[in-house]
Amino acid sequence: MLSPSPKPHPVIIVGAGPVGLITAVNLAKLNVPVLVLERNHQVDQSPRAAVYQPCAQAELLESGTLDDVRKESVLNDVMTFWKNKERVASIAKTQDADVFPAGLNCPQPKLAKILVDHLLNKYKAEIKFCQKVIQIDSDAGQDTVEVVALDTNTNLEIRYTCNWLVGADGAGSAVRRLSDITFDGFSWPKEDFVATNVRFDFMKHGFSTANFIMDPVHWSVVCILDDAGLWRCAFGVKAGMTNDEIRAEIDEHYKHIFPVWPVEYELVELNKYKPHQRCASTFRKGRVLLAGDAAHSNNPIGGLGLTTGLLDAGPLGRALGAVINGRAPEGLLDYWANARRGKWLTFTNAFSIENKRMIQMAGYSEDPLGIWADDEVAKEHNMEKWVRTATPGKKQEDTQFYESLADLHNQDMFHVRQWSITLDPRWMEEYEDPEVVKYRISLRPDRL
């Protein structure tokens, strides 16, 4: 039985992760009341994203949250590439690191908590937990969307009505599925990824704040999470393993990843997940909008997943706020949807796959799981185009890349390249204060 419908909301956002929350903050800053529905009983506490590129920090700054995020973050000032436990190359912070460092490392649950505090304490907004969206009717009225959620605390179904619905509920998005929007692409069929939080003094043994361990089997991304000895150590396993099975063999991974072995360490958390390369067929369907992993999902090597999501969220919040406040036409949302989808398809997807290929040394090393094999499995999953990028010639290409990083200019341009994921800062200048646009432009490297 449905409980009575509350009064209509201007915007409902499904998903209280950083993407949904940044969208909400940007809307609330424009005096648009926001309701956020989250299926869990609290913000997700599992090990997830941890690295925020300068372009993502610009969005945090514009949302007014960066100062608080910095207080909970560790400066990520050097990225090091390792092979056979030998340093191959390094990338230092950018030339304009006085504006944004090369990266900030902050566990996603900490970021989400900061955003929740800002949203609830500074603005007109509400978050309801334990709300599992089970039905969407976008044809309920010309200007409304109806959302039915199951309250998992009371087992009651609650009907909500809104003028605009934003799905920021992750790769398994209920909003996307219930809106009949396809999620095109593929999931890596022969492997799963594992994110672990571990206490060990990597820095004592020469690791920098971020590290790529290049290996065809025991590859890893290792980065510092706080000043108390907590580090993220991510690696790959064969598909279908349970968490208990992974824990049982974790030393077999760690002995190849840690700078010295055997050692004592503390495994704090472990989270297994399936890596994807998928994109929604549209980011807007009527009054339903998708952002973050609900709109696109890529493997996280290189830290482009949540970074790209935050770059969806800020512009979406500002554009939707302008539409609701009568300053911009609805067509602005079509521009946003097409532009953000284009950024993922032309940059994030290909770059994240190339990062994965490089760290796994694909094309010129052993591949016992056949991850990069051009076989029937690849054909079945429509991933032939991508596995065929793993050619023997990549060995020389990778070597040249590492050698090029001896030049500080090339290090700098590696960071600047990340800004390619952003929209042009002038993209909605017709509907914004000129000083706001001028300030946004000032945040970008002048080398773009």
From TrEMBL:
Cofactor(s) demanded: FAD
SUPFAM superfamilies: FAD/NAD(P)-binding domain
Identification of the protein by name: FAD-binding domain-containing protein
Lineage: Eukaryota, Fungi, Dikarya, Ascomycota, Pezizomycotina
Top-level taxon: Eukaryota
Keywords, ordered alphabetically: FAD, Flavoprotein, Oxidoreductase
Boundaries of every FAD-binding domain copy: 10-341
Protein's UniProt keywords contain tRNA-binding: no
A molecular function GO annotation: oxidoreductase activity, acting on paired donors, with incorporation or reduction of molecular oxygen, NAD(P)H as one donor, and incorporation of one atom of oxygen
Annotated source species: Fusarium oxysporum f. sp. lycopersici (strain 4287 / CBS 123668 / FGSC 9935 / NRRL 34936)
Gene3D superfamilies assigned to the protein according to its UniProt record, in alphabetical order: D-Amino Acid Oxidase, subunit A, domain 2, FAD/NAD(P)-binding domain
InterPro entries xrefs: FAD-bd, FAD/NAD-bd_sf, RIFMO-like
